[in-house]
Amino acid sequence: MLSLFTRLTEDVRTAQAKDPAARGALEVVLTYPGLHAIWCYRVAHALWRRDHHLLARLLSHLARLLTGVEIHPGASIGRRFFIDHGMGVVVGETADIGDDVLMYHGVTLGGNSMRREKRHPTIEDDAVLGANATLIGAITVGEGARIGAGAVVSDDVPAGVTMVGPKATQFSPTSESDDEDDGDGSVEPPTGAAE
């Protein structure tokens, strides 16, 4: 088991290796919000594992305020994880992220259940998650898979493949009465939508 200090220094080297704009360790340490978020997560996760849940959540909240990155301290994150740019990243409580994963800004690893169970994605080693990708549910993204920018993924992704494009569902009302608001929370098509 690596010491916390060893992990933190490894995180700096990872940022330098994965970002061609990095000019040196001091610059990375002082100016990389993704790195700061990962560091706060590593400390918060250590607290979480020792049943200091409130303190861990407070540290995570502070990290979100300072970096724009929200990582639940209960999530499991491997070695050499790098968040490039960072702003808008959300990682849920039961998410599992392997080693050498690269994540860009705006990525969401979200849940799809209100139950206390595995409800967030598992990201295997060497995966790349493009900007604003949304991964929902207890799915698995296989080793070395790449998720393109803006992709919405709610099914397992095999190892080594690349997934691109948003996942959307066609909306087609079945009758005239479907066009009226019946208070059930259903989504109506926008005015002027093609029929």
TrEMBL record:
SUPFAM superfamilies: Trimeric LpxA-like enzymes. Pfam families: Hexapep (PF00132). Residues 164-195 are annotated as: Disordered. GO terms for molecular function: serine O-acetyltransferase activity. Its EC number is 2.3.1.30. Keywords: Acyltransferase, Amino-acid biosynthesis, Cysteine biosynthesis, Cytoplasm, Repeat, Transferase. Residues 176-185 have a biased composition (Acidic residues). InterPro entries: Hexapep, Hexapep_transf_CS, LbH_SAT, Ser_AcTrfase_N_sf, Ser_O-AcTrfase, Serine_acetyltransferase, Trimer_LpxA-like_sf. It is found in: Cytoplasm. It comes from the Archaea. GO terms for cellular component: cytoplasm. It is an enzyme of class 2 (transferase). GO terms for biological process: cysteine biosynthetic process from serine. Pathway: Amino-acid biosynthesis; L-cysteine biosynthesis; L-cysteine from L-serine: step 1/2. It catalyses: L-serine + acetyl-CoA = O-acetyl-L-serine + CoA. NCBIfam families: cysE, EPS_EpsC. Belongs to the transferase hexapeptide repeat family. This is Serine acetyltransferase.
